[in-house]
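User: You have something folded?
Assistant:
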Amino acid sequence: MDVRSQISMVFHLDKCIGCHTCSVACKNLWTDRKGAEYMWWNNVETKPGTGYPGKWEDQDIYKGGWEKDGEGIRLKGAGKPKSLTNIFHNPHMPVIDDYYEPFTFKYLDLIESSAGDDQPTARPISMITGEPMDIKMGPNWDDDLSGSPDYARNDPNFANLTDAEQEAMFELERMAFFYLPRICNHCLNPACVASCPSGAIYKRGEDGVVLINQDVCRGWRMCVTACPYKKTYYNWNTGKSEKCILCYPRIESGLAPVCMHSCVGRIRYLGVMLYDADQIEAVASADEADVVQRQMDMILDPFDPEVVAAAMANGVADSTIDSAQKSPTYKFVKIWNMALPLHPEFRTLPMLFYVPPLLPVVATVSEADHSERAGELHDIAKHWPDSWLYDTTTKELFGTIDDARFPLEYMASLFSAGDTTAVADRLKKLMAVRLHRRLVTVGDVAKETVDAALADTNLTPLLADEIYYLTSLAKFDDRFVIPAAHREQAIEMIEFTGDVKGNTGFGFKVGSAVRGA
């Protein structure tokens, strides 16, 4: 058992209000410079939608991530053989139009134009060429379902939905959307690391943050192709690749990353999780239907004495183990089973998890006489206990999963490689907590209904209150449990690099830094 620590994140999608404060904070701190104008290390997308860059989820276009190769895996669009053939022309590389051509406005024209009969305007100009341009799209062009025919209807996650289900999502009275914030997932099996011909990309041993050594990077851009989330970017000015660094200088100082610190909706959680690195290759090469559960299983219990002993023997600091025991992400992901990874079928084992949105709260149509829906109730019963189905107050207030405006198949395409049961289980827990809190605060829900809901989801009133607290009332230190940085260990690792041939200098043992490459 090779126990390692990993900084992990949870985003609670029911709380995201789409304000883009996180994106602007990250932009101002890290990518507000020449060559990085088009980069948004943190971006917030509207779902349904094609995202940024356009259709990034469609790996038939971009060839990112890993794919099954017999009993193992291989890079889908990168790797040594493919890198050699595509080294001078990579057909799977996103171009600037897939992102957007960054623009600003010539504001001086508003105050320096000579007097005339017409109102002066500030023309848009390209931030790359400096020439006037026509704005065609931006990083959140389809925000709030704007441009739905061209963007939302081309969402790759519609592949498993029928035409009728797709059309129903865009009916005016049923239309709904939610926000999907994205940053680098700092994966356990990062395709970007395995694809780099220069070995410039590495995963830090002390916290699992994936970084790019700017001195080693030669701008081959295979990492851009290999990352299925398209969170590695090419700086056209420096000729180097860049990506989210999870604000590691802030983490080392005990501060939350700037996107998380500035989050208005307080949807973000950061903490440490311990995992067994010996399982990475087996989990990444598992059958698609098993990847999510296998990834959950490789996350270890930080209270287990054997796990603690193995972690200490592997150099994991006491403060890191203590942080893992207090980690909010461990609670959401492992204890409560309420969060799922984004597109686990890419097989990178992402360490950013999402609590799927339970929306809308009120059902689309409330019916006064539920007795006429016997046949429909029979179909819904596969997701809900019978005692929930016949509680009129509950039904009218909250609806059921099958009444929601987002089909389970859509959510499953995003978060569970198509497994609708995994998504339904998480939504049922969210529903149970809401029903419990409704009973506590308003009291218009039958106690029998709440008891049945909690029992069906293996929750207790005390556990439901804990989930409610961390979701709605948690303070800063509850949401961000950041381990203390150990500068002395970092210095030792840097010095150790020059002494022992084959050691990466970042806590990795020979042969284990890149799995499946």
Summary: DSSP finds 24 helices and 14 strands in the chain. The radius of gyration is 24 Å. Residues 361-403+419-474 form one domain. The CA atoms of residues 115 and 500 lie 73 Å apart.
